[in-house]
């Protein structure tokens, strides 16, 4: 899921396509290739994710209580959670979206309500599964994918994108008292990173390079699994993958200068990447999923047990 901003809770007042076009530019571009029906479904899922992410990142005093109520409603309890959540539950019931994935997404959002200092790679990856691997799993259902094997690859795409998000937003997250870079890679406090102290420039940049290398493993897996999607969905997801992956390449092109703020993929680059995605439509045998990529995900939504 694309990292969402701080226009708190406006998404519930807009149409799904408006939310997507305003806040998820990379995904909105990719959704243009889905067709009207699938694009609307994808936008409605994004709207739900946007809503809870806005709530988690906002400044409302009761946001933790609200997130807890939403989690309880998604888990089947009779609590009031608002029309945005009821709309998502309707979508989920209609398209067989696993609510266990949505519950885990809320767990990730709730974990962000406390100052975050990730300890190691395993904790990082489990967080990425919670807030983004689950979204990939839910998107599989939205896009009418009936191939069970696709779930594992969809999770990988979500994880890869979240690792890219973290790489791009190191400074922004630190200002919110969050450090997702594992301490075992670069043990600086969020405050030190937020201040962009010179002494942490290069060590944090090296950690970002490791994040991007890790993301590449998950992107490579997801790119293989795209062939399991229905043909109409395949091009759109391939474009989303390539455009999002390119954020990491733009970061590297800027010498990983994270202290200079966010990077973006230009429209012209999106056009080129979209054309390159046509190659991903060619028939190809999809190999077995690399189970070691899910080593740290046991017990989580959509993950096959060993």
- Sequence of strands across the biggest β-sheet: 1-2
Number of domains as seen in the coordinates: 1
Mean pLDDT: 90
Which ranges are low-confidence, i.e. pLDDT below 50, for 5 or more consecutive residues?
A: 1-12
Share in β-strands? under 5%
Topology pattern, helix = H, strand = E? HHHHHHEHHHEHHHH
Spatial shape? globular
Indicate the percent of residues in helices: 55-70%
- How many DSSP H or I helices? 13
Broad CATH class? Mainly Alpha
CATH architecture type: Orthogonal Bundle
For the termini, the CA-CA separation is: 27 Å
CATH topology: Farnesyl Diphosphate Synthase
The main pleated sheet reads as: 2 strands, parallel
In short:
The protein is an all-alpha fold and 306 residues long. The protein has helices at 16-23, 25-31, 36-57, 63-74, 83-95, 99-111, 121-142, 150-168, 170-174, 190-194, 201-225, 231-253, 267-276; strands at 116-117, 178-179.
């Amino acid at each position: 899921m694309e990292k969402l901003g701080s226009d708190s809770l406006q998404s519930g007042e807009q149409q799904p396509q408006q939310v997507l076009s305003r806040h998820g530019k990379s995904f909105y571009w990719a959704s243009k290739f889905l067709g009207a029906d699938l694009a609307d479904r994808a936008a409605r899922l994004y709207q739900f994710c946007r809503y809870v992410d806005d709530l988690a990142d906002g400044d409302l005093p009761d946001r933790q209580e609200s997130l807890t109520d939403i989690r309880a409603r998604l888990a089947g309890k009779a609590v009031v959670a608002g029309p945005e959540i009821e709309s998502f539950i309707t979508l989920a019931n209609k398209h067989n979206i696993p609510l266990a994935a949505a519950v885990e997404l809320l767990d990730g959002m709730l974990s962000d309500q406390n100052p975050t200092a990730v300890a190691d790679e395993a904790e990082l990856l489990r967080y990425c599964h919670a807030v983004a691997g689950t979204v990939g799993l839910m998107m599989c259902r939205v896009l009418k994918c009936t191939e069970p094997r696709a779930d594992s690859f969809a999770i990988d795409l979500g994880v890869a994108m979240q690792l890219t998000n973290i790489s791009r937003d190191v400074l922004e997250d630190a200002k919110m008292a969050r450090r997702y870079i594992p301490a075992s890679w670069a043990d600086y406090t969020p405050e030190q990173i937020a201040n962009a102290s010179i002494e942490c420039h290069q060590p944090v940049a090296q950690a970002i390079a490791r994040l991007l290398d890790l993301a590449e493993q998950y992107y490579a897996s997801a790119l293989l699994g795209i062939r399991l999607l229905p043909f109409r969905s395949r091009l759109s997801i391939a474009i989303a993958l390539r455009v999002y992956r390119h954020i990491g390449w733009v970061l590297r092109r800027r010498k990983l200068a994270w202290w200079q703020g966010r990077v973006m993929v230009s429209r012209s680059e999106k056009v080129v990447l979209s054309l390159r995605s046509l190659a991903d439509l060619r028939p190809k045998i999809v190999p077995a999923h690399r189970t070691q990529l899910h080593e740290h995900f046991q017990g989580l939504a959509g993950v096959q047990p060993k």
